[in-house]
Inverse folding.
């Protein structure tokens, strides 16, 4: 049934938008009116497209819920999800249209509300920012989600299921270019996610934490308030990094670690720590023996 | 993140937040009063206005006020209550909206009449305007950090349009009277509001100081739950961790015999314990005179449940192992430091009398939550592992005959020794006597002796995580 509805939805969305644009042109009484109708055709196309897609998406909106579902059209949740997804992707992949929707504040609000988003609309997002499952999203005021970043509210799993979870991005939080945020992530206020950061499932970023470029945060980790994670660092599964801690670049924090204080950080090796240790050892050796301990590379 | 230390509290921030929140509340209530009072103005102004313009009907004086005064006040009240904007923004917005609503109301018959040759209508509303300009700003009692902003807004949105209207009435007396009165009353209103806000600030500061004082006793979890609305921290749940039970031997006799000396020693011991325990990520739950109940890992922040994600099982086991290694390190390091400190203090206070203690450690699932009645609540832990740690501590009396008479003993359950890497300082004791009370299933324990007369260093017995 769903597989028949999807093409029907596309016909309705594209068809009604085209009709809304073409009808005034066709039925205009005069040439001038026809020219005016042509001028305003993109506007009527845009509004109709968004309206029809949004209204049709409401049919499947109730299925946009947290949980793990079988990826089958016969699944009572996944099937309607596909309908919702069809309507949203019809708009999302129509880049010029979606761009116009995001550019006009009123149209942005209407679009997001029609597709089930209930949070504030005072956030910045780009046409190539990957977003799905709008009812599962919450962007607080001033949030900035850079282009080519991915807000992954859903994730397909190897066992043929799909995991859907909410993503919350706090006030004035920033998600950098090409960053990937996994399902269940919570970014508190003023969190800064650097470019290329990958964050797994249900990761929590507390207020004002900063994640350096290309860092990897594995599933279930918690990053504390005002904590800085250095570039290219790896934070293992379910690791907890406490408040006000600076994890150096290239650090490797193992799964389950609980980094409570800055002293704990030194326990976990990073490239900087290794180099500093070697230099210190060399210096000590020079003072004692008159020659360095390690060979110069 | 909970670390057993007192939560850090910024008094300035608390006071500022409190003042802003109170001001927003007052804006809300003033908006509600505005609905009623501006509607009332419609009822009481009709008879006066109709003298100047007989075409004004009663309903013609009411319905514009409903739409252009009462409805905006209602929307403003809803905004103050429901908006997610910051309190500071809300107050600024309210100040602007207040001025605009006043202007809109002025244009309902009164200002048009004043401009069309009846400037005396301004005198009719002069008293009301004065009360309005003065009363609103006194009642609001704005926080001093935004008083100037709101004063500028009041002058530009509230007084300036009125001034312009009054200046165009071609009646210098009415112009001077109304414009000067309203300017003076606005300024007086702000000055009055400033003094009232100082009073509010003092009250908020007292409240914040009490909060800070309470924070020292409450600990991170209870403080955050009450003052930061993190009620989840108090919810009942089962967590896994270590439990350490410490008890001082013969404390009753020592109290009877040494009285003040023992009291002084007790205070020093508690002060030292209160410093050592959070520094090693422990939570001091209870003190029962001479005993301490300490947990490790039970009040740590819980990581999200990933059991529904396939393919993570091996990583989760690694994470759990790492967690236990760290908890083991902190638990045993803390125990070691506590016992050494105890011995140091006891030698200082009682150089002639050996004072010893017994300790028991167990590991496993521990229930945590709030217990008690509505009148008296306590954040507590309970469960089998808690009871067992107390029994193990008690059992240290049974095994004392195998060690030096004056030694302090640590008894560790077999489950708690799983992640203990360096067991060289522990002796395995097979339970051949009556067994551990209520736990006959425990057939052996690990025992560590802290000899009273040997000089122990801090590093001995510590293990790497």
């Amino acid at each position: 049934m769903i597989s028949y509805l999807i093409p029907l939805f596309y016909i309705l969305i594209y068809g009604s938008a085209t009709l809304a644009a073409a009808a005034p042109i066709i039925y205009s009484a005069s040439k001038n009116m026809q020219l005016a109708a042509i001028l305003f055709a993109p506007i009527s196309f845009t509004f109709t497209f968004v309206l029809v897609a949004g209204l049709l998406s409401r049919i499947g909106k109730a299925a946009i819920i947290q949980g793990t579902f079988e990826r089958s059209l016969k699944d009572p949740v996944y099937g309607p999800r596909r309908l919702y997804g069809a309507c949203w992707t019809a708009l999302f992949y129509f880049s010029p249209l979606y761009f116009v929707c995001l550019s006009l504040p009123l149209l942005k609000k209407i679009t997001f509300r029609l597709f089930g988003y209930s949070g504030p609309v005072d956030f910045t997002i780009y046409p190539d920012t990957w977003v799905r499952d709008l009812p599962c999203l919450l962007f607080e005021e001033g949030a900035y989600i850079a282009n080519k970043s991915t807000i992954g509210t859903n994730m397909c799993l190897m066992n043929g299921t799909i995991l859907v979870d909410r993503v919350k991005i706090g006030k004035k939080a920033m998600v950098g270019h090409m960053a990937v945020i996994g399902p269940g992530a919570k970014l508190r206020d003023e969190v800064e996610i650097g470019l290329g950061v990958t964050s797994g499932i249900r990761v929590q970023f507390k207020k004002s934490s900063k994640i350096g470029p290309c860092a990897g945060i594995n599933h279930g980790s918690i990053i504390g308030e005002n904590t800085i994670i250095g570039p290219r660092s790896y934070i293992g599964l379910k690791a907890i990094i406490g408040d006000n801690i600076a994890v150096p670049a290239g650090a490797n924090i193992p799964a389950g670690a609980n980094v409570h204080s800055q002293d704990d950080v030194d326990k976990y090796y990073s490239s900087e720590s290794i180099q500093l240790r070697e230099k210190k050892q060399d210096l000590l050796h020079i003072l004692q023996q008159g020659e360095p301990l390690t060979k110069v590379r | 993140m909970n670390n057993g230390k007192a939560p850090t509290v910024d008094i300035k921030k608390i006071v500022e937040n409190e003042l802003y929140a109170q001001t927003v509340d007052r804006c809300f209530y003033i908006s509600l009063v505005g609905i009623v009072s501006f509607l009332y103005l419609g009822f009481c102004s009709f008879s006066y206005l109709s003298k100047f313009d007989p075409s004004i009907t009663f309903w013609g004086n009411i319905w514009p006020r409903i739409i252009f005064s009462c409805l905006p006040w209602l929307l403003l009240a809803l905004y103050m209550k429901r908006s997610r904007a910051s309190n500071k923004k809300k107050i600024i917005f309210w100040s602007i909206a207040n001025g605009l609503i006043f202007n809109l109301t002025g244009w309902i018959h009164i200002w048009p009449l004043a401009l069309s040759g009846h400037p005396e209508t301004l005198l009719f509303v002069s008293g009301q305007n004065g009360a309005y300009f003065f009363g609103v700003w006194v009642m609001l009692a704005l926080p001093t950090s935004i008083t100037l902003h709101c004063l500028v807004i009041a002058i530009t949105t509230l007084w300036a349009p009125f001034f312009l209207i009054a200046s165009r009435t071609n009646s210098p007396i009415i112009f001077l009277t109304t414009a000067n009165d309203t300017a003076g009353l606005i300024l007086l209103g702000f000055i009055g509001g400033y003094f009232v806000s100082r009073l509010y600030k003092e009250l908020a500061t007292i409240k914040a100081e009490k909060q800070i004082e309470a924070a020292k006793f409450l600990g991170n979890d209870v403080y955050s739950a009450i003052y930061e609305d993190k009620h989840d921290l108090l919810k009942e749940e089962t967590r896994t961790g270590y439990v350490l039970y410490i008890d001082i031997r013969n404390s009753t006799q020592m109290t009877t015999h040494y009285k003040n000396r023992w009291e002084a020693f007790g205070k020093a011991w508690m002060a030292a314990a209160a410093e050592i325990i959070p520094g090693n990520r422990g939570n001091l739950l209870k003190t029962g005179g001479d005993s301490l109940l300490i947990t490790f890992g039970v009040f740590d922040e819980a990581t999200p449940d990933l059991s529904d994600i396939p393919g993570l099982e091996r990583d989760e086991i690694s994470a759990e192992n790492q967690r236990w290694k760290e908890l083991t390190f902190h638990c045993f390091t803390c125990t070691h430091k506590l016992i050494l400190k105890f011995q140091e203090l006891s030698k200082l206070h009682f150089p002639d009398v050996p004072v010893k203690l017994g300790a028991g450690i167990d590991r496993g699932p521990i229930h945590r939550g709030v217990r008690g009645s509505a009148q008296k609540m306590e954040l507590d832990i309970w469960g089998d592992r808690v009871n067992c740690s107390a029994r193990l501590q008690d059992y240290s009396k049974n095994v004392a005959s195998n060690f030096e008479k004056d030694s302090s003993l640590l008894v560790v359950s077999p489950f708690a020794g799983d992640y203990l890497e360096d067991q060289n300082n522990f002796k395995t004791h097979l339970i051949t006597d009556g067994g551990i009370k209520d736990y006959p299933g425990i057939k052996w324990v690990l025992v560590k002796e802290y000899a009273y007369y040997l000089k122990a260093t801090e590093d001995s017995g510590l293990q790497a995580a």
Summary: The CA atoms of residues 54 and 114 of chain A lie 5 Å apart. Chain A has a mean pLDDT of 91.
